[in-house]
Design a protein that fits this description.
Elements: H1 53-71, E1 75-78, H2 81-88, H3 94-99, E2 104-108, E3 114-117, E4 133-136, H4 148-167, E5 176-179, H5 184-192, E6 196-199, H6 201-207, H7 213-236, H8 243-256, E7 261-262, E8 267-269, E9 290-294, E10 297-298, E11 304-305, E12 308-312, H9 320-339, H10 346-352, H11 358-361, E13 367-372, E14 376-382, H12 387-390, E15 401-409, E16 416-425, E17 430-432, H13 440-443
Parallel strand pairs: 1-5, 3-4, 5-6
Antiparallel strand pairs: 1-2, 2-3, 7-10, 8-9, 9-12, 10-11, 13-14, 13-15, 15-16, 16-17
Helix pairs in contact: 4-5, 7-8
Length: 447
């Protein structure tokens, strides 16, 4: 049996490092665990290994509470699993709670963070230093049992009591709370208790837009794992393999690399590459066809890895049309990436973006760039013709991570090419986080 590939996670480092590491020194105070040398001192190391999970969680919770102060909120209730993970590091049955928003976090501006958890599973998160108390959710199973109205009042009464305790004043005394996701019934029940209810999803995404050093490390680890998974897919491409088999290979590699799940099934072949957004099915790849994929992976510590590649299935060589499509997509990625810098206005980026040839314009990818964090995040910069409808005004900031997108395919034609790379906006420009090479046969040159 061949040995499975192994990828580092946050709890370990590669064992086959080429360089000799120095001896691990003791702590200066003579106690506790030894100090681990920083393995990321080299400017050439694209995979930081000095991640501090405690600092990661502390800085994210601090940014969440800073958002409360900026928005003049007394507390937030977070039902969204991504926001819960961001604010506290807590994760429980992620897919289940994406559709069944009955697990929630109470985070006051000052005071204890309380997790309202699924029955019997508090132990999954109570070890976290970011959570001071756990209680059973008041709304679990309410919808499936037809008890939404019955559950709403005790839910709201408990929250009103907590807000009164932490913010001062009488229960429900004109205090402002915000929720990222909830039913209309819960919001109305909170208002019935005298609370002013706001929506905080937009504010949470704004707070999450700039990445800390530890978040960048998580993003790098996720990208490394996904690149290994994509390599497995590329090696598996051959006449007769199905899209489902290729997607299973991608998922296997992502899980082995410490990733959590893949949001989409965007892997297609042959005529399914045009237009884009066809998902993997039972179609089998034939010689001379293109295979395109978008990773869309929730990776290490729930951080996203978002890259796209298009491959050629031999034997033989790509057609002139296929090479032309690929070269245009490659040019679009690199032209737009070269524009990235802090302070660049979204409108200027849209105005200076690669000019899409008219025959490909109607099937353009919806965005020039989009933010990356725990999933596709802020900002999303649409093409100039769509900018006012989808984006509005804003500027790039150092600490943002973005994916640069390209899709080139002519309506009614046989093939389309999807490419995408991920970049960190730095103080002086942008650093490419995706290291996976482009297809030399399709590009018709070495890059």
């Amino acid at each position: 049996m061949s040995q499975q590939p192994h990828h580092p996670t946050l709890r370990e480092v590669p064992g086959d490092l080429d360089q000799q590491l120095p001896d691990v020194p003791a702590r200066p105070d003579g106690g506790g665990a030894p100090q681990v040398p920083d393995r990321s001192a080299s400017v050439f190391d694209s995979l930081p290994m000095d991640l501090d999970p405690l600092r990661l969680r502390a800085e994210r919770l601090a940014r969440t509470r800073a958002m409360l102060r900026e928005q003049e909120l007394d507390a937030v209730l977070l039902f969204d699993p991504y926001n819960q993970r961001y604010a506290t590091g807590s994760r429980n049955m992620f897919g289940y709670f994406l559709r069944n928003a009955t697990r929630y976090l109470y985070i006051p501006r000052e005071g204890d963070v309380i997790l309202f958890e699924y029955p019997g599973s508090a132990h999954v998160s109570t070890w976290l230093e970011t959570i001071q108390e756990s209680r059973t959710s008041k709304v679990v199973w309410a919808s499936v049992n037809g008890r939404d109205r019955d559950a709403a009042r005790p839910f709201a009464e408990e929250i009103a009591e907590l807000v009164a305790r932490d913010a001062g004043g009488p229960a429900g005394g004109r205090r402002r709370v915000a929720l990222d996701r909830c039913t209309l019934g819960l919001a109305r029940a909170l208002e019935a208790e005298g609370l002013e209810v706001e929506d905080c999803m937009q504010a949470m995404l704004h707070a999450r837009r700039l990445k800390t050093a530890d978040e960048v490390a998580c993003l790098s680890l996720s990208m490394s794992a996904v690149e290994a998974a994509v390599h497995g897919v590329e090696r598996m491409i051959a006449p007769g393999v199905s899209e489902t088999e290729l997607f299973a290979k991608l998922y296997e590699g992502a899980l082995l690399g410490g990733c959590e799940f893949i949001e989409t099934r965007l892997l297609s072949s042959g005529p399914k590459t045009n237009p884009w957004f066809n998902e993997a099915g039972e179609r089998r790849v034939r010689p001379g066809e293109l295979v395109a994929l978008d990773s869309d992976t929730i990776g290490v510590n729930s951080y996203y890895a978002d890259m796209s590649r298009t491959f050629f299935c031999g034997p033989g060589r790509p057609s002139g049309t296929q090479r032309s499509l690929y070269s245009m997509a490659w040019e679009q990625i690199h032209h737009n990436a070269a524009l990235l810098r802090p302070g660049l206005a979204f409108r200027e980026l849209a105005e200076r973006a690669w000019p899409i040839p008219e025959r490909f314009f109607d099937q353009r990818y919806p965005s020039i760039i989009h933010g990356v964090g725990m999933h596709g995040e802020k900002p999303l910069v649409a093409h100039l013709c769509d900018l006012d409808r989808y984006t509005g005004d804003g500027v790039l900031e150092a600490g943002m991570v973005v994916s640069v997108e390209s899709y080139v395919g002519e309506p009614g034609a046989a093939d389309g090419v999807k490419l995408e790379d991920q970049y960190l906006i730095t103080e002086t420009g942008a650093a490419r986080m995706t290291r996976y090479p482009f297809d030399e046969a399709l590009l018709d040159r070495q890059v």
